[in-house]
TrEMBL record:
Ranges that cross the membrane: none
The protein, known as: ATP-binding protein
UniProt source species: Streptomyces prunicolor
Single GO MF annotation: ATP binding
Keyword entries, A-Z: ATP-binding, Kinase, Nucleotide-binding, Serine/threonine-protein kinase, Transferase
Keyword match ATP-binding: yes
Domain of life: Bacteria
Length: 125
């Protein structure tokens, strides 16, 4: 099972994305929305993105978010208790089995892979 959505990275798009990902578990939805939020914060609101959720075939679910800025790379920060930002990639790092960035000349894809045993909500799908 796979899903691909093209959208503009805006605050309004985040809950809409969660709605489109209802068949997936909370961790998949959280990672996808965190990656889109990173685009809003670090590339710019209104940036066109493509969100993909894929079954890797080895029991994992892969979440990918592609945007047109190959230079704005995600950073794994350790936010303090009083920081208002900087937790998104740390959260993704804690939930995902692995994550990374694939850069092209005119785009980048930030991806993560999660344990597929829990990737579908209700596990009976």
């Amino acid at each position: 099972m796979s899903l691909e959505l093209r959208l503009l990275a805006t605050p309004k798009a985040v809950p809409e994305l969660r709605h489109h990902l209802q068949r997936y578990d909370y961790d998949v939805r959280l990672c996808a929305t965190e990656l889109v939020t990173n685009v809003i914060e670090h590339v710019g609101e209104g940036t066109p993105v493509t969100v993909r959720v894929l079954d890797t075939g080895d029991g994992r679910t892969r979440v990918e978010v592609t945007d047109p800025d190959p230079r704005a790379l995600p950073l794994l920060l350790r936010a303090t208790a009083t920081d208002e930002h900087g937790r998104g990639m740390a959260l993704l790092d804690a939930l995902a089995q692995r994550w990374g960035v694939e850069q092209g000349a005119d785009r980048k894809t930030v991806w993560c892979e999660l344990d597929g045993l829990n990737s579908l909500a209700g596990r009976g799908c």
